From TrEMBL:
This is HNH domain-containing protein. InterPro entries: HNH (IPR002711), HNH_nuc (IPR003615). Transmembrane segments: none annotated. Residues 25-65 form the HNH domain. PANTHER family: HNH DOMAIN-CONTAINING PROTEIN, TUDOR DOMAIN-CONTAINING PROTEIN.
Amino acid sequence: MIGKIRQKLIAQEVPALQKPAEIMCPICDRPIPASQRDAHHLIPKSKGGKTTEYLHRICHKQIHALFTETELAQQYHHAQILRDHPEMKKFIEWVSNKPNSFYEKTRKSSRLKSSK
């Protein structure tokens, strides 16, 4: 027996013949493969955020490597604001030449490491 929630999800699935719309990453403007899709809370959950946006896993990791949760909640709670940050601009330029399914481990910025 399948639970009621799962039944609703199955009923809402796109028929096999229809191709689902591609989800574009609002950070790097590339299509996100299902295997690299992460939900990012625009304002961190720990700061009361509820709204999420899908991002490439590598873009999501880069955001959390560069910014604290407080910074994300107070200053960088929108994709365009994140894109305009100089460090993110360098990252976006670098990742834009990579395949959509590309992933590489991300390191925390030295600024965040030294603040602990």
